[in-house]
Write a structure and sequence with these properties.
By secondary structure, the chain is α+β, with helices and mostly antiparallel strands. Among the domains are: about 10-40 and about 165-190, no CATH class; about 45-155, EIF_2_alpha (Alpha-Beta Plaits, 2-Layer Sandwich). The chain has helices at about 5-15, 15-40, 60-75, 75-85, 90-95, 120-140, 165-200, 220-245; strands at about 45-50, 100-105, 110-115, 145-150. A hairpin with a 5-residue loop joins strand 2 (about 100-105) and strand 3 (about 110-115).
């Protein structure tokens, strides 16, 4: 690649402003189409639970108990009941992939959420999951001193959690701009490298011409030789005629 003149490159970009604008518009259109017509929106309902009565005498024991409850919330024992009660038309694997349960460090709080393409369904599934979670924990732990209280009830999501129009359309527009810049750069480099390549292929003007083959026949020499032959033959026949007389 030859050395690039930044000033010439900038002028080239300015001349091609319409091409850049077209690519930017295409990127924006693609971003809008994906955001509003292709991407499936997911509505996430969230809730906060508090474990009351955990033993804080040992930090390790506390974390084990919290992790047990977190994993129990995502277990088949809890979610299969939710699927049956709510008439969920997907299987356990699909539901658990949309379930989140996290324990907050150094606390007894568990943040849980469920997301689906329908806002009302997300809330109903989460409420059913919390109820099933309480029942299964009570059945497994018996008359445990730990109680599960609701700090924040299941929320009704107002907007999709995975759709961010401004960010997504902005990224698509920026991608179109960068694609135009990179493509035009290669066009600029190709055009500026062609004249130099063509000049390198031209024969050098100072190279000596190929010497003429010495063995080639010279037309003038051939004519002189032919005249000599004719004269000799003429004298031969003329001399013969004089001798007969």
């Amino acid at each position: 690649m030859e050395e690039i003149n930044l000033y010439d490159l900038l002028r080239f970009y300015i001349k091609k402003w319409l091409t850049i604008a077209i690519f930017v518009m295409i990127g924006g259109i693609v971003g809008i189409a994906y955001t509003y017509y292709i991407q499936t929106p997911q509505y996430e309902s969230k809730a906060t639970l508090l474990l009351v009565g955990t033993d804080h005498t040992s930090g390790n024991q506390e974390s084990v108990a919290l992790n047990n409850y977190v994993e129990l919330f995502k277990s088949r024992r809890v979610l299969d009941t939710v699927i049956a009660d709510q008439g969920y038309d997907k299987d356990y694997d699909t539901l658990v992939s949309n379930v989140t349960a996290r324990g907050t460090k150094s606390t007894d709080i568990i943040n849980v959420s469920i997301k689906t393409p329908d806002a009302k369904q997300s809330k109903a599934l989460l409420e059913s999951a919390i109820e099933s979670f309480r029942n299964e924990a009570k059945e497994l732990y018996g008359n445990s001193s730990i109680k599960i209280n609701t700090v924040d009830a299941a929320s009704t999501p107002k907007s999709p959690s995975n759709v961010r129009p401004a960010i997504q359309i902005g990224l698509a527009t920026a991608a179109g701009f960068m694609l135009a810049i990179i493509g035009l750069f290669f066009v600029y480099d190709y055009r500026h490298s062609q004249p130099k390549a063509a000049k390198a292929d031209e024969p050098r003007s100072n190279e000596p011409a190929q010497p003429k083959d010495q063995t080639d026949d010279d037309p003038e020499t051939d004519t002189a030789k032919e005249d000599t032959r004719c004269t000799t033959i003429s004298h031969f026949y003329t001399g013969g005629a004089y001798e007969k007389e």
